[in-house]
Write a structure and sequence with these properties.
The chain is α/β, with parallel strands linked by helices. The chain folds into two domains: 10-118 and 188-303, Rossmann fold (3-Layer(aba) Sandwich); 125-184, Histone, subunit A, CATH 1.10.20. Helix content is 50%, strand content 9%. It has a six-stranded parallel sheet, with helices on both faces. Helix 3 packs across helix 4 (108-116) and helix 5 packs across helix 7. The chain is globular. The termini are close together.
Length: 307
C-alpha cells in the first residue's frame, strides 16, 4: 500500500465517544477495503469483560478479523506501553499480508500510544509509594491539590477522577520539573505508519439516547452477574470504570439497583463528553456521523492509494 504524500502506510483510526457506532463503522470500512480491525478499546481486551464493554457480536467477529478483543485476561492487565508494542507488531503483520488495518476504539491513551508512541518517561518507586499513601489517607482531592500546585493546567489534561492517572501526572511533573503538556509534546520515536484520524459521533441527544439504551440492554443481558464474577478484580484499573464500579458499590449497599443504573447512565454520558473533548483536540481529525460510511470510505481513498 502506498500513500499520496508519504511512503508510509496510512492507517484509518476510527475513534470517538462510547456508543457512537464506531464498531459498526469499522466493520463496514474493513468490508470495503479488505481490512482487519485493531481494537483500541482498553476494556475489550479482556475475556472476562464482555457485557459491560459492548464487544462486537460473534457474527461481527466472524465476518471480519478482530485483534485485541478477548486477547488477554483481567488477571494480567495490558499497559498502554505493552499495547503499543503488540499493536504495532500486529499492524505491520497485517500490512505484510497485504490487508488493510483499521484501528477502532475510544480509549484515548491506548490509541495515542499505538499511533504516536509513548515516551520513555521517568518513574520513581519511592515517590509512587508516597503518593499511594497520601491518596489512601487523605483521598483524591489531596493528590489533585498537590498536582495543581506543581502544574495548574495538568488537571485539565487527564482524567481527574482516575487516581492512577493523577498520581502518574504528579510523578512526571515532579520528577522532570516540567509542565505535563511539555512532557507530552516531547519528541517520540518515529512510527512506521501514519494515522488518518476519523471521528465518529451522532448529535448529542442521539448519543445520550444510545447510551441509555445500551445500559438498559446490558442490564438485561446479565451485567450484574458479570460484575459479581469480577469482584475479586475490582481494584484492577480496567474495572475501576463506568458500568462496573457503580455495581460494585451497589453490591456493598451504597444504593439500590435503580440508582446504580441511573449512575451508570449519567457517568457514561460524562465519560462520552470527556472522550469528545480529548479527540477534538487531535490535529487534522475529520468528523462524521455513524451513517456516513460511504463518505468515510471516500475520505480514506483521498488519503491513501487503497483501491
Amino acid at each position: 500500500m502506498t500513500t499520496t504524500k508519504s511512503s508510509k502506510p496510512r492507517i484509518p483510526v476510527i475513534c470517538g465517544p462510547t456508543a457512537a457506532g464506531k464498531t459498526s463503522v469499522g466493520i463496514k470500512i474493513c468490508k470495503g477495503f479488505d481490512g482487519e480491525v485493531i481494537s483500541a478499546d482498553s476494556r475489550q481486551f479482556y475475556r472476562e469483560m464482555s457485557i459491560g464493554t459492548a464487544k462486537p457480536s460473534k457474527e461481527e467477529m466472524a465476518a471480519i478479523p478482530h485483534h485485541f478483543v478477548d486477547s488477554h485476561s483481567i488477571s494480567h492487565p495490558l499497559t498502554a506501553g505493552e499495547f503499543e508494542r503488540q499493536g504495532e507488531q500486529k499492524i505491520l503483520e497485517i500490512l505484510d499480508r497485504r490487508k488493510f488495518p483499521v484501528v477502532v476504539g475510544g480509549s484515548g491513551l491506548f490509541i495515542r500510544s499505538l499511533m504516536e508512541g509513548l515516551d520513555e518517561l521517568p518513574s520513581d518507586k519511592k515517590l509512587r509509594e508516597e503518593l499511594i499513601l497520601q491518596y489512601e489517607k487523605y483521598g483524591l482531592d489531596s493528590i489533585l491539590l498537590r498536582l495543581e500546585k506543581s502544574d495548574p493546567e495538568a488537571k485539565n489534561q487527564i482524567d481527574a477522577k482516575n487516581q492512577v492517572r493523577v498520581m502518574r501526572a504528579i510523578e512526571l511533573v515532579e520528577l522532570t520539573e516540567k509542565p505535563l503538556v511539555e512532557i507530552r509534546n516531547q519528541t517520540k520515536r518515529e512510527k512506521p505508519f501514519e494515522p488518518i484520524w476519523i471521528g465518529i459521533t451522532p448529535e448529542r441527544e442521539i448519543l445520550y439516547e444510545r447510551i441509555d439504551q445500551r445500559v438498559d440492554e446490558m442490564i438485561k443481558a446479565g451485567l450484574l452477574d458479570e460484575a459479581k464474577n469480577l469482584i475479586e478484580f475490582k481494584e484492577v484499573d480496567p474495572l475501576k470504570t463506568v458500568g462496573y464500579r457503580e455495581l460494585f458499590n451497589q453490591f456493598e449497599g451504597a444504593y439500590d439497583l435503580d440508582e446504580a443504573v441511573r449512575l451508570i447512565k449519567r457517568n457514561t454520558r460524562h465519560f462520552a463528553k470527556r472522550q469528545l473533548t480529548w479527540f477534538r483536540k487531535i490535529e487534522g481529525i475529520k468528523w462524521f456521523e455513524p451513517n456516513q460510511v460511504e463518505e468515510i470510505k471516500s475520505y480514506i481513498k483521498t488519503k491513501t492509494a487503497v483501491a
